[in-house]
From TrEMBL:
SUPFAM superfamilies: alpha-D-mannose-specific plant lectins, Protein kinase-like (PK-like). This is Receptor-like serine/threonine-protein kinase. SMART domains: B_lectin, PAN_AP, S_TKc. The lineage of its organism: Eukaryota, Viridiplantae, Streptophyta, Embryophyta, Tracheophyta. Residues 285-321 form the EGF-like domain. It comes from the Eukaryota. It comes from Vitis vinifera (Grape).
């Protein structure tokens, strides 16, 4: 080869590369795409080039795949049956308007085989994923020399046609890959069957495995889920030139494809950006009733029945023994043969997938009455139905001989009429009328019984209300909490004593202002001696122990405070108000929340700051209560003339300075059992320690309170804070400073 020839070839190659770079979605005559080069659709959605299957093999295929999203998902393959064995492949556009794929020996291994004459031909990859051969800038699809949409692989993209061109004989069908790593044609095809009235079918070789049922103007009869929706729109075209199904997008942002898998499953897949993956939107073969002719002839399949196959009315199993062994393939036979002399009638079926239409005929102009008459006059006609139900019903669809592959839907099926002997039609009509009468009688009797029952129940409730009202007139119904204030809870437990007005007047000195409830030192209004206070402490501890350990579900109260402890006449405490309580499983120890609710002054640090609550949160609440009962002071709003510590900080300081006697409420005076009081203070400080791991459980506290042994030395309490004098009157819904890091915390007080 001389230098001039070499230079010409080099320049041609450079020009070819430059032209590809300037028009990245197309190539023209004498341009080429070599292995490793690609062209991309204008919007960047699809890419054309060479790929390997399996990924690490030497088998190379020319194909189109998704580029913008779902990178690498192949939508179309050219040389499915003849892969290249190396990277020598080249794609070219010829003067005749053909696309040719050449191997290293310059042999054509695939061609677009266009038969139209070409002028200035070029190949362009459209944003739809369609590879088209066209003349110059002519973008009219009717004038395309060739397009990949007419020769689909296993994928149906929006805008593609699945069906036949009646004039040219072009049959657009999907064919599965042999396997996920082998693009060659597999065993399954998905096509529009033109025999009888057209319907879509999946075939394995020459055997039908699934069918859609005929198009009824709204959807395919076997696809009740094909309803109008804001994502997809469907269309079925059937005229003298072509018959095909197509779908398109209402919402163009959706990325979807219809895929025939190597195992024969037909799935609609949608790309999800959030997960960066495909998800199954719908599957054609939903269950066993979608297996073609599972129940044989003149039988229906209902997936909700057991057994799922049943003979149609007026039919019995052809082979009873096999049928009883759940081999339904033999189908059913008529009880009574057809007369064929106008002595027959029709039985209506509703909500079904229409039978196989490959043995059907149709007439677009007939109405349903004319369709019935034609079927009666034709001896071999076995059923009829409307051809189109989109506008109330039109056209005539007739079946001949066997009725096969009928499915019973619970809703959205279609009506059709099965031909039967007149005597059987009358018998079924009479039976249906009797059933309807029995149904009306049964419903009427049920309504009467329900009315009588309602009247009796109403009289019973009215009587109970009157009885309860009389009791309430005789007795008071208010309970009292630990702080001496009334609760709004009605008494439901009749074992608790009731207080009449005279008792309340005596207890309050005729409602003296000195005994007013709700003042700062509310604990003292109860004037409890120490033994009663110690009983209360023990009672609350045992109540919490039951909630934490002995109850079927472990319960965390989260708002244990003086207001939520009810006392009976002998000062036995009852824990109340479980409005914000939470239950735990036996294997749960703690949980967290983003919404902290409770009462400032009782909440543990980990709950107030981080929203973490556990049994140790209730332990902290309980210990605040213990220190309040011992001191007669509330933690929230506590004030001392010598410092600004809260009650916990005050108790800790006195304990560390051996001045704990100063914490004891002076009103308990001589009733004080000093060892019990000191043990209660020690237990209280142990259970308000900052770390929840340092706090004992309720079972340990019950033992500590009831024993006389030595107790552990408590560590510094949580919320050992200093407050200013204005904080005492602040609402718990306002911000309160925490001295640990000077941040602001917001607490919501419970009801």
């Amino acid at each position: 080869m001389d230098a001039l020839t070499t230079l010409v070839i080099l320049l041609s190659y450079v020009v070819s590369i430059l032209r590809i770079c300037s028009a990245v979605d197309s190539i023209t005559v004498n341009q080429m795409i070599q292995d490793g080069e690609t062209i991309t659709s204008a919007g960047g959605s699809f890419e054309l080039g060479f790929f390997s299957r399996p990924a690490n093999s030497n088998k190379r295929y020319l194909g189109i795949w998704y580029k913008k999203v779902a990178t690498g998902t192949v939508a179309w393959v050219a040389n499915r049956e003849l892969p290249l064995n190396d990277t020598s492949g080249v794609l070219k556009v010829t003067d005749q308007g053909k696309l040719v794929l050449l191997n290293g020996a310059n042999t054509i291994i695939w061609s677009s085989n266009s038969s139209r004459s070409a002028q200035n031909p070029n190949a362009q990859l459209l944003e739809s994923g369609n590879l088209v051969m066209k003349n110059g800038n002519d973008s009219d699809p009717e004038n395309f020399l060739w397009q990949s949409f007419d020769h689909p692989s296993s994928t149906l993209l929006p805008g593609m046609k699945l069906g036949r061109n009646i004039i040219t004989g072009l049959d657009r069908r999907l064919s599965s890959w042999k396997s996920t790593d082998d693009p060659s044609r597999g065993n399954f095809t998905y096509r529009l069957d033109p025999n009888g009235f057209p319907q879509l079918i999946v075939m394995q070789g020459s055997d039908v495995t699934f069918r859609s049922g005929p198009w009824n103007g709204l959807r395919f009869s076997g696809f009740p889920e094909m309803r109008p929706n804001p994502v997809f729109k469907y269309d079925f075209v059937f005229n003298e030139k072509e018959m095909y199904f197509t779908f398109d997008l209402v919402n163009s942002s959706v990325i979807t494809r219809l895929e025939l898998n190597p195992n024969g499953d037909l799935q609609r897949l949608v790309w999800i950006d959030r997960t960066q993956g495909w998800t199954v939107y719908a599957t054609a073969q939903k269950d066993d009733c979608d297996i073609y002719a599972l129940c044989g002839g003149y039988a229906t399949c209902n997936i909700n029945d057991s057994p799922r196959c049943d003979c149609m009315k007026g039919f019995v199993p052809k082979f009873p023994d096999e049928w009883n062994r759940m081999d339904w393939s033999g189908g059913c036979d008529r009880n009574i043969a057809l007369n064929c002399q106008n002595g027959d009638g029709f039985l209506k079926y509703s909500g079904i997938k229409l039978p196989d239409t490959r043995n059907s005929e149709f007439n677009r102009s007939m109405n349903l009455k004319e369709c019935e008459s034609l079927c009666l006059r034709t001896c071999s006609c076995t059923a009829y139905s409307n051809l189109d139900i989109s506008r109330g019903g039109s056209g005539c669809l007739l079946w001949f001989d066997n009725l096969t592959d009928i499915r019973d839907f619970t809703e959205d099926g279609q009506e059709f009429y099965v031909r039967m002997a007149a005597s059987e039609v009358d018998a079924f009509a009479s039976s249906s009328k009797r059933k309807k009468q029995r149904w009306v009688i049964s419903i009427s009797a049920s309504i009467v019984a329900l009315i009588l029952l309602s009247l009796l129940l109403g009289l019973y409730i009215l009587k109970k209300k009157k009885k309860k009202k009389k009791k309430l007139k005789r007795k008071g119904t208010m309970l009292y909490n630990l702080e001496g204030s009334q609760t709004n809870e009605r008494q439901e437990d009749l074992d608790l004593p009731l207080f009449d007005l005279t008792t309340i007047c005596n207890a309050t000195n005729n409602f003296s202002i000195d005994n007013k409830l709700g003042q700062e030192d509310q604990m003292r209004s109860m004037t409890l001696d120490w033994p009663k206070r110690f009983v209360i402490i023990n009672g609350i501890a045992r109540g919490l122990l039951y909630l934490h350990q002995d109850s079927r579900l472990r319960i965390i109260h989260r708002d244990l405070k003086a207001n939520n402890i009810l006392l009976d006449s002998v000062m036995n405490p009852k824990i109340s108000d479980f409005g914000i309580a939470r239950s735990f499983g036996s294997d749960e120890t703690k949980a967290s929340t983003n919404r902290v609710v409770g009462t400032y002054g009782y909440m543990s640090p980990e709950y107030a700051i981080h929203g973490v609550y556990s049994i140790k949160s209730d332990v902290f609440n309980f210990s605040v209560l213990v220190l309040e009962i011992v001191s007669g002071k509330r933690n929230r709003g506590f004030r001392h003339p010598d410092h600004y510590l809260n009650l916990l900080g005050h108790a800790w300081t006195l304990y560390m300075e051996d001045r704990y006697l100063e914490l004891i409420d002076k009103s308990i005076g001589v009733t004080c059992n000093l060892p019990e009081v000191l043990r209660s203070i020690n237990v209280g400080l142990l259970c308000v320690q900052r770390s929840l791991d340092d706090r004992p459980s309720m079972s340990s506290m019950v033992q500590m309170l009831g024993s006389e042994g030595a107790l552990p030395q408590p560590k510094e309490p949580g919320f050992f804070t200093e407050t200013n004098i204005h904080e005492a009157n602040s609402s718990s819904s306002k911000h309160a400073p925490f001295s640990g890091n000077k941040s602001s915390l917001t607490f919501l007080e419970a009801r």
